[in-house]
Amino acid sequence: MSVNPESRGATSGGGPRPPVVPRQGAGHDTDASAEGAGGPPGEPIRVLIVDDHALFRRGLEMVLAGEDGIEVVGEGSDGHEAVQKAGDLLPDIVLMDIRMPRRSGIEACAAIKEAVPSAKIVMLTISDEEEDLFEAIKAGATGYLLKEIAIDEVPQAVHAVHGGQSLISPSMASKLITEFASLAKRSEERRQQVPAPKLTDREMEVLRLVARGLGNREIAKELFISENTVKNHVRNILEKLQLHSRMEAVVYAVREKLLEIT
Prior knowledge:
Blueprint: E1 20-21, H1 30-36, E2 45-50, H2 54-65, E3 70-76, H3 79-89, E4 93-96, H4 105-115, E5 120-125, H5 130-139, E6 143-146, H6 154-162, E7 166-168, H7 170-193, H8 201-211, H9 216-223, H10 227-241, H11 246-255
Parallel strand pairs: 2-3, 2-4, 4-5, 5-6, 6-7
Antiparallel strand pairs: 1-7
Helix pairs in contact: 1-6, 3-4, 4-5, 8-10, 8-11, 9-10
């Protein structure tokens, strides 16, 4: 990512813009949404810049300082300073690198979200590692942008995130989607591998009669047991199947082939 302030007027030309994932401000103009987020309307967006390279910080500061509606309130050179300054300055947006001395950006992200929940954190990094992306999101990051982003797009990103949107670089977004698909597949495979809870023979008898539409008193007469015993069996069935109603138990049992309705 170039940090030459003279490049601000240039068009991006370096590839597609980061995808916008709508949040609360979805469907609204960015500027209008920005007014509804953070501080009172008309107040500038307070930005904290955290990166261990002084020249990079300086370049970002020069670009953002010339942008209407944005105020750079502080800088930090590592994760430790990020947490400290975020607590003192209460920024709206934190632009932060991942790989930094003393404390990583991901560790700092989690700490900042705990100390200043209202702060929105955008990881601005060279790391295109999937693990860094996933860990950043788990830590509470609202955006993940690679430093290959055009310099003139950074102010736009600040406004967008402040307005309630999430930003992820296109190449990283595809990795995120792939991982979500993989997680969904693994979850389904695990669900299929987990055996259905085992019911006793008596519980199966009760469940079959419930499926026929019999009430507790009728089931008690059919099985020559007390009505309270039937209630206990039904309660045990629901607990084992982790369900809430007799009808849910019947539907589950039929779906899992615990019984057949004839």
